[in-house]
Amino acid sequence: MNYLENLPKQKRPIRVVQFGEGNFLRAFVDYMIDIANEKGVFNGNIAIVKPIAFGSLENFHKQNNNYTVVLRGKENGKTVEETRVVTSVEQVVDCTGDLNGFLSLAELESLRFVVSNTTEAGITLDEKDHFEGLPETYPGKLTKFLYHRYQAFSGAEDKGLILLPVELIEHNGRKLKECVLALIRIWSLPDGFARWVENSCVFCTTLVDRIVTGYPRDKAQEICQKLGYTDLLLDVCEPFALWVIESEKDISGELPLHKLGLPVVFTDNLKPYRDRKVRVLNGAHTSSVLAAYLCGQSIVRDCMQDAVIGQFIRRVVMEEIVPQVKLPEQEVRQFAESVFERFENPFIDHALLSISLNSVSKWRARVLPTFRDHFDACKQIPKLMTFSFAALLAFYRSEDLRQDGLYAKRPDGTEYVIHDDAGVLAFFAENSKKENSDYVGAIAANKVFWGEDMTAYPEFIQTVTKWLALLERDPIQAVRTVLE
């Protein structure tokens, strides 16, 4: 008999319905709730709803909904490998094959929270979605679920739910609420239900951060041998986690995860935390990976261990990015140090070429806001971020445009493929043959790329042109020079 199948489970009321059975929610939300249950501050189990026909719940049934989370990475300078068996998933429901079972969850007196991770495309309004049977979209399914609850409890104000979407889109809670209210109008559901959704339900906007690699196919046998049992739902992630929850009403008393030291922040303004993540973590990637790849590196961990590239990453973050994040500086610096540890994770091979995807839009979203703030504050362009712009131009410089991407070569002759929007690649291919200053000028002046004319910044074109020439001649020496 399987160890997990026969593991004793503590009976608790179902307080959470979770749309999505994937790796992230299981290693993030369910992991935290399991700790809260163990510590006696939550007392609530989870019902997982598989929201689409694709996939199977067979492995959940085989293991009585139990599974192991493995934390692997670096934390406070030490390598971490920790495991936890999560036993707080009470039941799993395939809503596409069991509509009644799905809707019956809405009738639970104990239910209070709805968590979802239905991909970034999941929170979209489809005006053609149908109310009859099972709606197609997640907002449609949620609207029907909420309406069933509204009817079951005759619109009782205290039976509203707290919605916690973790899909990686800005204002996810607000957008989910907009979709639900729009469907109520489209489906001509009662005005009283719309008021109940508005007044009795709390739609939170959230920001989540944890790298979850999921089932480790190449390491599963080795890990299970160490555990002493087989786990078909094994879920591997990094130690770092952050869950920022923004809501109009304070819900921290009902979800007191932060009281256990878990990385959960309740706030009425999520934006500074989003800016911190996008600017520090994502900005560090986008500022460095293209130059690092041209220097011969291939994965993030090796970049951190390289004396030159590692110094560049740390300096661009600490000297140019951190000062422009509008949170207490010490708090941002601590976050930056945790980012460096995550980049050094010995268990994750994060490929630079995968991060390089769509680098033009990434530079605009992740680097340019900090570049602009630095210029406004210091009245001069930031040296290291300007260098990263030159590295982007060096990385993208090629006339060899093919159907599957723009082909280019590193100085050592290694061929690579640049993937971006077709219009972006075509523009680079058309302009790559120009002299350096004209090439830089053409790219920098493209308002479609940057939302502004970058040539307007004093000394920008001259500086980028200088770095571009050195990058194309000797990338490693170029990085050394910019650090001087």
The total domain count is 2
Protein structure class: alpha/beta
Could you say what the CATH architecture of the largest domain is?
A: 3-Layer(aba) Sandwich
Biggest β-sheet description: 6 strands, parallel
Percent in strands = 15-25%
Mean pLDDT: 96
> What would you call the shape?
globular
End-to-end Cα distance, whole Å, is 63 Å
CATH-assigned fold name of the largest domain: Rossmann fold
CATH superfamily membership of the largest domain? NAD(P)-binding Rossmann-like Domain
Summarize the amount of helix as a percent range. 40-55%
How many helices? The count is 20
Looking at how many chains there are and whether they match, the oligomeric state comes to single chain
What's the level 1 CATH class of the largest domain? Alpha Beta
| Low-pLDDT runs | none
Main sheet: which strands, in order across? 5-2-1-6-7-8
Overall radius of gyration? 25 Å
Tally the beta strands: 16
Topology:
Blueprint: E1 14-19, H1 23-27, H2 29-38, E2 45-50, H3 58-62, E3 67-75, E4 78-86, E5 89-94, H4 99-104, E6 113-116, H5 138-152, E7 162-165, H6 172-186, H7 191-200, E8 202-203, E9 205-209, E10 212-214, H8 220-227, E11 235-237, E12 242-246, E13 264-267, H9 271-294, H10 300-305, H11 307-321, H12 329-343, H13 352-355, H14 359-378, H15 383-396, E14 400-402, E15 405-409, E16 415-418, H16 422-431, H17 436-444, H18 447-450, H19 460-473, H20 475-483
Parallel strand pairs: 1-2, 1-6, 2-5, 3-11, 6-7, 7-8, 12-13
Antiparallel strand pairs: 3-4, 9-12, 10-11, 14-15, 15-16
Helix pairs in contact: 5-6, 6-7, 9-11, 9-14, 9-15, 11-20, 14-15, 15-19, 17-19, 19-20
